[in-house]
């Protein structure tokens, strides 16, 4: 494969030598600016910021709507948005999933479009956490870089509005 962005490749190699989750390192900074921030920018900006924080802290959960028997839902749980209104965009959309941030008891209904954007960012974070924790052993640095590029492509497709209907 031809390297399109040699500077990002070099930043990735430097990052991989001493992996950090600090968003100010050159490698992550570029991906935050070009992919993560645009992917997680929604009209409800306060909630969008909370979503980013939960993704960074690995404390966001996504679940399908309607699969939990009512008796198991905490009486104190607050549901924001609804099956027909996305909490992140405020738009009337069919929401088949809801998110929970950290240990909050609030649930936020999200549209398939928002779910794909969030999950594409979560997939990126999961992979770089695996690298940071030394769990990616079967790949050399080039293979890891191309996997990062594939995950960036997924974020780009998600922020452009392409998403799989089955999500």
TrEMBL record:
Any one Gene Ontology cellular component term annotated for this protein: Golgi to plasma membrane transport vesicle
InterPro entries named in the record: RAB3IL/RAB3IP/Sec2
Pfam families: RAB3A-like_C (PF25555)
GO molecular function: guanyl-nucleotide exchange factor activity
A GO biological process held by the record: exocytosis
Keywords: Coiled coil
PANTHER family: RAB-3A-INTERACTING PROTEIN, RABIN3-RELATED
Assigned protein family: Belongs to the SEC2 family.
Name of this chain's protein: RAB3A interacting protein
């Amino acid at each position: 494969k031809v390297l399109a962005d040699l500077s990002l490749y070099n930043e990735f190699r430097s990052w991989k030598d001493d992996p950090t989750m600090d968003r100010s390192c050159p490698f992550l900074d570029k991906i935050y600016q070009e992919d993560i921030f645009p992917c997680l920018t929604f009209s409800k900006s306060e909630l969008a910021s909370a979503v980013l924080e939960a993704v960074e802290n690995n404390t966001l959960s996504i679940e399908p709507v309607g699969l939990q028997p009512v008796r198991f839902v905490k009486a104190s749980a607050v549901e924001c948005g609804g099956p027909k209104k996305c909490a992140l965009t405020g738009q009337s959309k069919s929401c088949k999933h809801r998110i929970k941030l950290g240990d909050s008891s609030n649930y936020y209904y999200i549209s398939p479009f928002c779910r794909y954007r969030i999950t594409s960012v979560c997939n990126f974070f999961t992979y770089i956490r695996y690298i940071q924790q030394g769990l990616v052993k079967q790949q050399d640095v080039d293979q890891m870089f191309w996997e990062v590029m594939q995950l960036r492509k997924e974020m780009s497709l998600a922020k452009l509005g392409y998403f799989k209907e089955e999500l």
